[in-house]
Specification:
The complex is a heterodimer of chains A (about 260) and B (about 240).
Chain A lengths: L16 E10 L2 E11 L4 E5 L6 H8 L7 E6 L13 H11 E4 L3 H4 L6 H11 L5 H14 L16 H13 L5 E5 L7 H18 L2 E6 L2 H7 L2 E6 L2 E7 H6 L4 H8 L3
Parallel strand pairs in A: 3-7, 3-8, 5-6, 6-7
Antiparallel strand pairs in A: 1-2, 1-4, 8-9
Helix pairs in contact in A: 4-5, 4-6, 5-6
Chain B lengths: L2 E14 L4 E14 L3 E5 L6 H9 L6 E8 L2 E4 L5 H10 L1 E4 L11 H11 L4 H14 L16 H13 L5 E5 L7 H16 L3 E5 L12 E4 L16
Parallel strand pairs in B: 3-8, 3-9, 6-7, 7-8
Antiparallel strand pairs in B: 1-2, 1-4, 4-5
């Protein structure tokens, strides 16, 4: 950080997400060191950094599937209190299922590849307690539609679908319960450029129509530039810079960020 | 008149770590801008005109000095305001007009132009009606309104860009060569719209390759060329 900014004075809304001093080591390896993030409702935070920078580990911590050694994490939601890292396993699982959606780079992590696509989406609703078959099917269909998935394929298992379509199924599953927070881990990495553009466009639409709060992790600056309002740059488990997206890309302060921005083709 | 912007001792340089050097862009700029005033920035290429605009908009971080913006919600120093406050002001009070349209795939020209109104809370039908009005005013042909601007020519994209940038009246408008690549009719429409916004109290700071286009609007000028004579006449600026 080269410069400290004032606390917000005009915007009175409280942040939805505050994470502070998140640290984690794997044996000798320091994966995260005092990582922090603040995200306001409706905002998109982009996290960039090269492979091994700790950005995906941090995202998994925000999804409560990985527990840091130390740190605090709060979500400003009506019935959610305290440091979420202190919740027991059951409470964590319910919170994730109902309030947080995630899309992984690898669809195998997020989907049952041999179950129907609509079933994959409905499973999320089942976990949240919905039992009526008609409602399950309608809601799954609506979520797939919002993710711009072709509905005539909704009963096909993900294993029979293209990479782009698999990401749309993951996205439908993630938004089916209208989560307060949507986490995206390299959602378009590995897709054809044209498919990548379409998936990004779907994300942009969802964000504009529903004002979903998002945290998106990518090594691809173009993806972050397209979606993010603010950017955090990570390197070797640490935050080296954060700021407004246009500012970080046009006037990067840290030597590493300058190298990253100038390395873009 | 109401003060809108007070710039005090503003300096900007770029530290380039790979060269181990710092490039100065401009140094110790101060001025005050009131509602309805138009300030022209002049200076030779590389004098820092666009850099100053971007520093005011906070796309660039200032090296030193302050930019006190008198918003509808109080005075705030844009050089150190929180990111969310800057985002809020960009959505509501501070506009930046460039010569480039940021078109998005599968978003029609009219939806793109209506977007600032939608974000400000205008209902969809009203926003669309106003968007069509401004597309017409800037001379975009009616059949293009529902089309995707990604496929438009440079000139047509620029008209869409202007309609979008100027649809919502702002307290402060930053203009970075908005007349580039415009035909005469669109240029006239732009001048009309700027004059109208100025009468309504919008304060403006602009960089123009051909300042003659906007000479009728200009109250004051600042020359950013180092060692320039601050008293220079404005008639000699056509570069």
């Amino acid at each position: 950080m080269t410069q400290t900014l004032d606390a917000p004075r005009l915007v009175k809304t409280k942040p939805l997400l505050i994470a502070r001093n998140v640290s984690k080591t794997y044996g000798e390896v320091r994966a995260l060191c005092d990582v922090f993030a603040t995200v306001y409702p409706g905002e998109v935070l982009g996290i960039v950094g090269e492979s091994g920078s700790g950005k995906s580990t941090f995202l998994r911590c925000l999804n409560l599937e990985e527990m840091p050694d130390t740190g605090s994490y709060t979500l400003d939601l009506p019935d959610v209190q305290g440091n979420l890292f202190d919740l027991d396993r059951y409470a964590r699982r319910m919170l994730c299922a109902t309030r947080i959606g995630i899309v992984y780079q690898n669809p195998h992590l997020g989907l049952l590849m041999r179950h129907s696509s609509s079933g994959n989406v409905a499973e999320r609703l089942l976990v949240a307690g919905e039992r009526r078959f008609g409602v399950l099917r309608d809601k799954a269909e609506a979520a797939l539609d919002a993710s711009e998935f072709p509905l005539d394929r909704m009963d096909a298992p993900p294993i029979e679908l293209s990479g782009g379509m698999q990401q749309r199924v993951q996205l439908a599953k993630a938004i089916a319960l209208e989560p307060a927070l949507l986490l995206l881990d390299e959602p378009t990495t590995g897709l054809d450029v044209s498919v990548q553009a379409l998936v990004l466009d779907t994300l942009k639409r969802l964000q504009q129509d529903r004002r979903i709060t998002m945290v998106i992790v990518s090594h691809d600056l173009g993806v972050i530039r397209t979606l993010a309002d603010r950017v955090t740059v990570m390197r070797r488990g640490m935050v080296v810079e954060e700021g407004l997206a246009d500012q970080v890309f046009q006037d990067p302060q840290h030597a590493y960020t300058q190298q990253l921005v100038h390395a873009k083709l | 008149m109401t003060v809108i912007l007070e710039v005090r001792g503003l300096s900007k340089g770029f530290t380039m770590h790979h060269l181990g050097a710092c490039m100065a862009a401009f140094d110790d700029i101060s001025f005050t801008l009131r509602a309805g005033e138009f300030l022209l920035l002049k200076g030779r290429n590389g004098a820092g005109k666009s850099t100053l605009l971007r520093t005011l908009y906070r796309s660039y971080l200032a090296a030193s000095g302050s930019v006190l913006f008198h918003s509808a919600h109080g005075v705030i120093d844009l050089t150190r305001a929180a990111d969310v406050d800057v985002t809020f002001l960009r959505r509501t009070e501070i506009g930046f007009v460039t010569q480039f349209l940021t078109a998005r795939p599968r978003v029609s020209a009219e939806a793109l132009v209506a977007e600032p109104l939608r974000l400000a809370g205008t209902d969809a039908d009203d926003a669309l009606a106003q968007a069509r009005h401004w597309l017409g005013a800037f001379g975009v042909k009616r059949d293009l309104w529902p089309a995707y601007p990604t496929t438009f020519s440079g000139g047509e994209q620029q008209k869409v860009n202007l309609a979008r940038a100027l649809i919502l009246p702002r307290r402060l408008l930053l203009l970075d060569e908005p007349t580039a690549s415009l035909d005469a009719a669109a240029r006239a429409a732009l001048i009309d719209r700027l004059a109208e916004l100025k009468r309504q109290g919008t304060a403006m700071i602009g960089v123009f390759h051909h300042p003659g286009d906007v000479s009728a609007l200009i109250e004051r000028e600042i020359d950013l060329t180092p060692d320039a004579d601050p008293q220079e006449e404005r008639t000699d600026v056509a570069v």
